[in-house]
């Protein structure tokens, strides 16, 4: 298993312990900074993708990384063999991660995300998507603290 496979498996175990059906790891920190301190580079740590922007969504049977066209070639190379699927933003056949979650969750599901790193617009969009499918959004779930043993401090 690659380190990405192992980390995604650990995340899925943490999701099961917390009763989460999906977990979102955006490229952001509590200040919504352009350049992230090491502690807040969870998407990079989990997926192995080193680009500066992307959103990772993990469910029990899916892991996808949404990136825009600047990163398609890089992400394809860095995700190869990891089990994380490249989701190309702005391709007509690829829904955005919010729409994907709305279509792939159902009543009773719980979508987790660390609310500390979520802007208001993203919170509203995710809440609406969850509500549309009958799911709920849990914003007090920093699962990275559960699994990233050498995570940088605050």
Describe the fold and architecture.
Strand 2 and strand 3 form a beta hairpin. With 154 residues, the protein is of the alpha/beta class. Helix 4 runs parallel beside helix 5. The model has no long low-confidence stretch (mean pLDDT 95). Helix content is 36%, strand content 16%. The protein contains 6 helices and 6 strands; from the N terminus they run αβαββαβαβαβα. The radius of gyration is 14 Å and the shape is globular.
Descriptive terms for the model:
alpha/beta
Please write out the topology.
Layout: H1 3-18, E1 22-25, H2 42-47, E2 55-59, E3 63-67, H3 72-79, E4 85-88, H4 97-104, E5 110-113, H5 120-133, E6 136-138, H6 144-147
Helix pairs in contact: 4-5
Short description:
The protein is α/β, with parallel strands linked by helices and 154 residues long.
Mean pLDDT: 95
Q: Which structural class should the secondary elements be placed in? A: alpha/beta
* Gyration radius over CA: 14 Å
Uncertain spans: none
Terminal residue distance: 30 Å
Could you give a short account of the major beta sheet? 6 strands, mixed
Which strand-content bin applies to the residues? 15-25%
Large-scale geometry: globular
How helix-rich are the residues, as a percent range?
Answer: 25-40%
- The tally of beta strands, per DSSP, is 6
Order of helices and strands: HEHEEHEHEHEH
Walk across the major sheet and give the strand order: 4-3-2-1-5-6
Number of helices in the DSSP assignment = 6
């Amino acid at each position: 298993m690659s380190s990405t496979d192992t980390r995604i498996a650990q995340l899925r175990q943490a999701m099961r312990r917390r009763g989460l059906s999906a977990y979102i790891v955006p490229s952001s920190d509590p200040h919504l900074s352009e350049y992230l301190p090491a502690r807040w580079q969870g998407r990079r740590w989990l997926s192995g993708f080193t680009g500066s922007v992307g959103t990772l969504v993990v469910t029990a049977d899916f892991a996808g990384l949404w990136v825009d066209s600047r990163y398609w070639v890089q992400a394809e190379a860095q995700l190869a063999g990891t089990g994380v699927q490249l989701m190309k933003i702005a391709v007509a056949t690829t829904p955005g991660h919010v729409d994907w979650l709305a279509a792939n969750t159902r009543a009773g599901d719980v979508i987790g995300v660390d609310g500390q790193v979520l802007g208001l617009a993203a919170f509203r969009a995710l809440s609406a998507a969850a509500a549309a499918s009958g799911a709920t959004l849990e914003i007090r779930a920093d699962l990275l603290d559960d699994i990233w043993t050498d995570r940088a401090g605050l």
